[in-house]
Amino acid sequence: QVQLVESGGGVVQPGGSLRLSCAASGFTFSTYGMHWVRQAPGKGLEWVAFIRYDGSNKYYADSVKGRVTISRDNSKKMLYLQMNSLRGEDTAVYYCANGAAAGYWGQGTLVTVSS
Amino acid sequence: DIQMTQSPSSLSASVGDRVTITCQASQDISNYLNWYQQKPGKAPKLLIYDASNLETGVPSRFSASGSGTDFTFTISSLQPEDIATYYCQQYDNLLTFGGGTKVEIK
Questions:
Q1: N or C end of chain A: smaller count of CB under 10 Å?
Q2: Strand, coil or helix: what is B51?
């Protein structure tokens, strides 16, 4: 069955960096585009970034553009989100989701930006 | 960018009631719409894909319809375990989510 397991969250100071990872299994990772979606505490869902199956194209929400980089390693079945210049408003649970339609989601990893 | 307007933002209904949530897209998205259920502390769970198709294992009291810009999600007989927040999500162009509907028991 499809499994997505996020990791790498934690507490970071404003202006700091963090790299999130998403380990995929149970499907042919190299043929699926992948999303990152986040949810701030008590708020709704916000799309963050998308990468095509082969990494050829990447798309970002305006709220993170220039500060975040999505990448993938198909040989390792891993998805990544490098986050720099973090702000308080980046505090959220970050989920990875598979496919253009985001059919399956991981359990999420919490990022807290605080001094 | 495609905007998704979901209503109501919250509702309170009795067990056994029929519950309806609507979602409107700012432009034609055909049937590229999912509905999710999210319980506190959990990841969203896909209930409906392609606007009207029930995900495997999801109870048949959940249904949805619509295409183009107007979509409807229905719980035919609300059960206590359905207490959650429900989201619509378009995937015609990347992803956009509705604001969510928090469903409570009266």
A1: N
A2: coil
CA distances from B19 to B6, B82, B102 (A): 14, 11, 12
Q: What is the identity of the amino acid at A1?
A: Q
Q: In whole angstroms, give the CA distance from residue A68 to residue A62.
A: 10
Residues 17-36 of A with CB under 8 A from B: 35
Calpha distance B4→A111 (Å, rounded): 26
Question: Tens place of pLDDT for every residue, chain B, 106 residues?
Answer: 999 999 999 999 999 999 999 999 999 999 999 999 999 999 999 999 999 999 999 999 999 999 999 999 999 999 999 999 999 999 999 999 999 999 999 9
Residue A79 corresponds to which tokens in the numbers above? 């998805």
Work out the angle at residue A48's Cα, subtended by the Cα atoms of residues A42 and A50, and round it to the nearest 5 degrees.
145
Residues A32 and B50: their CA atoms lie apart, in Å, by 17
B-contacting residues of A 47-86, CB under 8 Å? 47, 50, 59
Residue A103: its chain B contacts at CB < 8 A? 34, 46, 49
